[in-house]
Amino acid sequence: MTTPEVPIRVLLVDDEQLVRAGLRMMLGADPGMDVVGEADDGAQALRLVGETSPQVVLMDIRMPRMDGLEALRRLRATHPDLAVIMLTTFDTDDMVLTALRDGATGFLLKNTAPPDLLAAVRAVSAGRPILSPSVTAQLIAAVSQRADRGAVTDARERLATLTEREAEVAQAVARGLSNAGIAAELFMSIGTVKSHIGHLFDKLGVDNRVQIALMVRDAAD
């Protein structure tokens, strides 16, 4: 007898009611998702997290009163295991890197397609960080400082442990290609791409695509 899937408990945090309605509609259409609450600012989100015990929080970066960054910092202090996906309208948002440094589990654009949004929620609930591949290159461009020599040497040494194919995948990730884009460019299946990226996480000691891209950039300095 198959055990029924336990729905993933999701809290929505956005000051725009229409955005929350759209997210609720997308998530509600999947039996594996359960929207347990909605908040219109960070302060309300902090209260609802305690009341509803979500596994995943989808939270806008820019909100009045308490924004997503401040709420993220406070959630990290009180609920370190909670998965938090930050949402934004802008693919070059200067707050994205701050959110990632402050412990965001993922980062998605608000126009992310429904299948990708659902996949992201499932990924972070399983402990896998997620980032919009289409904006990885822009995030890297936002880091304007050149790496110091120690970082360059470390990056080159880690990348030297990769196979030729893994190195090609790392370069493609650094250019912001999605899994599908990498598969098409390197003539491999999406499953094979995912396997290579998993190997990159393990060999390079990273846990998201931005860190892979940063390492590739550092090695090129």
From TrEMBL:
Keywords: DNA-binding, Phosphoprotein, Transcription, Transcription regulation
Signal peptide: none
CDD domains, A to Z: LuxR_C_like (cd06170), REC_NarL-like (cd17535)
Modified residues (4-aspartylphosphate): 60
Statement: the UniProt record of this protein carries the keyword Transferase: no
Coiled-coil segments: none
Residues covered by the Response regulatory domain: 9-125
UniProt keyword Transcription, yes or no: yes
Start and end residues of each HTH luxR-type domain: 155-220
Name of this chain's protein: Response regulator transcription factor
Species this chain originates from: Oerskovia rustica
